[in-house]
Description:
Layout: E1 4-7, E2 20-24, H1 29-34, H2 45-52, H3 61-70, E3 73-77, E4 79-84, E5 93-97, H4 101-106, E6 111-115, H5 117-131, E7 136-138, H6 150-157, H7 160-163
Amino acid sequence: MTNSFIIHPIPPVYDSSSRILILGSFPSVKSREVMFFYGHPQNRFWRVAADVFEEPVPMTVPDRKAFLLRNHIAVWDVIASCRIEGSSDASIKDVTVNDLRPILETAMIGQIYVNGKTAEKMYCKYTQPLTGRPCICLPSTSPANAAWSLERLVEAWSRIRQGA
């Protein structure tokens, strides 16, 4: 597989009532296909978020967007474009970052969370110097993070509910 240069195709989800911002690194192949965040059926993001907010798991893109906005959650990714092999975070090179100012100027974001270590590394390296805002790293909901059970993820991610 070659390292392809890809521009992030999915717009951020947020509105003026968003209170927390969750950033991933870059959308997976499957997410790019469905044109929405955490689109791979094995990614546990939607299951974890639904458990944290005690709601049914949203299954469609419109339901997922409504779920985020209803719970005051903004979602985007740190990276705007990069070279990437498939969905492999380890292969990411030649990074440009998304400009978070539209979200931060529209919504009263109290806390920025990142989904996994790659998002944390990219945020701390490229974005925090621009925003001056620290992030809190949560364990990745990716199926590649098999060391974390669903129950442990829900427990760790429960802190997002405080800020929403």
